[in-house]
Design a protein that fits this description.
The structure is a single chain. With about 350 residues, the chain is α+β, with helices and mostly antiparallel strands. The protein contains ten helices and 18 strands. The termini are far apart.
Length: about 350
């Protein structure tokens, strides 16, 4: 099902949670609504589901205006962060619930219902737990059951609100791959809310970056990361260092105006060495640690005392030789990105920068 959101707004009292949001989602797309807490992600999802009433604008499903239709009329499946399973029902009954509440004319017979429930339980690889109760399942298993229940009514749109937020890191990683496989098998339009950047970048076909109730950028994971629309998107996606005194690192005379500018560089774009170069900044090593194949360095510039982070592969780190806390390393800041006071990027081609030291 294709979805068009046109100038949608929603306020709670004096607080505007969603502000004139417009968005087109093609059939079968896997969309992540990504942003910090309070950015309007969950409110927008609930407006799509019909769980909240829009104040302004329109929502179209396959070209039909669904703005004022009820939850039952929308044929969407909703998966909550905390599962929302019925504690007094066993797993079979939880999954069957969505079928039992269907209108009588479309409600399956008991035999058809049983076949459908076990088909879904097999699909989520938990058919052996049909007689168990939610309290007897792990968090990952409960989330799979919540998804099976949402799919029972054969929705045309699947909506997920922070579906992995309550799970530990290992289970989240496993369920990310599993949910992506589910989406590919069903080819169902899927929209999920997350504040986890890695989750969005890994899973989604399209990322909608939100902030303060508005859409900051829409694009593929590669586009929003490599070509951020503004300062907020750049600083929100991935790890970044803010350079407070960019004039000490780059030639700010290249810009017509430097008032209100902010400069950033990503940790992996900083080169480190033990020997001084004409284009390097001496920095004290405060801490170094490994995260899998990545080594991260926490440093403090000698000149400005600013803290920053660099990272590289373990092979590159080994080329530095033995290092310890307190050592002086020399950092090259060659890929600084400068944003103006209106959040626009002033140097879309970082190679235009002239580095000064």
């Amino acid at each position: 099902m294709g979805i068009v959101i046109k100038d949608v707004g929603k306020a709670f009292g004096k607080f505007s949670a969603v502000k004139n949001v417009s968005l087109e989602i093609p059939t079968g797309d896997f969309v992540a609504l990504l942003g910090p807490s309070g950015s309007g992600k969950t409110t927008l999802l609930r407006l799509l589901a019909g769980l909240e009433v829009i104040d302004s604008g329109q929502i179209f499903f396959n070209g039909i205006d669904y703005s004022n239709k009820t939850v039952k009329d929308r044929n969407v499946g909703f998966v909550f962060q905390h599962y929302a399973l019925f504690k007094h029902m066993n797993i079979y009954e939880n999954v069957a619930f969505g079928l039992k509440v269907k209108p009588q004319k479309s409600r399956p017979s008991k035999k058809e219902m049983k076949e459908k429930v076990f088909e879904l339980l097999k699909f989520v690889q938990l058919e052996h737990l049909a007689e168990k109760y939610p309290a007897q399942l792990s968090g990952g298993q409960r989330q799979r059951i919540a998804l099976a229940r949402a799919l029972a009514a054969e929705p045309e749109v699947l909506l997920l609100d922070e579906p992995f937020g309550a799970l530990d890191a290992k289970v989240r990683q496993e369920l990310r791959h599993w949910l992506r496989e589910v989406h590919q098998k069903l080819n169902i339009t899927t929209i999920f809310v997350t504040h986890d950047q890695e989750e969005a970048l890994e899973m989604a076909d399209t990322i909608v970056v939100m902030n303060n109730g508005q859409v900051e950028q829409i694009g593929s994971p590669q586009d929003v990361y490599q070509f951020p629309a503004n300062r907020f998107v750049y600083s929100f996606l991935g790890r970044v260092n803010e350079i407070s005194r960019a004039d000490q690192v780059i030639d700010m005379d290249n810009f017509q105006s430097t008032a209100g500018t902010v400069s950033y560089i990503r940790p992996h774009e900083i080169a480190l060495g033990k020997k001084i170069k004409v284009n390097s900044i001496p920095s004290e090593l405060l801490h170094v640690y490994s995260v899998g194949y990545i080594v991260r360095f926490e440093l403090r510039r000698i000149d400005t005392k600013d803290l920053f982070e660099a990272e590289m592969s373990i092979d590159k780190a080994n080329e530095l030789g033995p290092i310890k806390k307190g050592d002086i390393l020399y950092a090259d800041f060659e890929n600084i990105v400068v944003f103006g006071k209106n959040q626009e990027q002033l140097n879309p081609n970082s190679e235009q920068l002239k580095i000064v030291y």
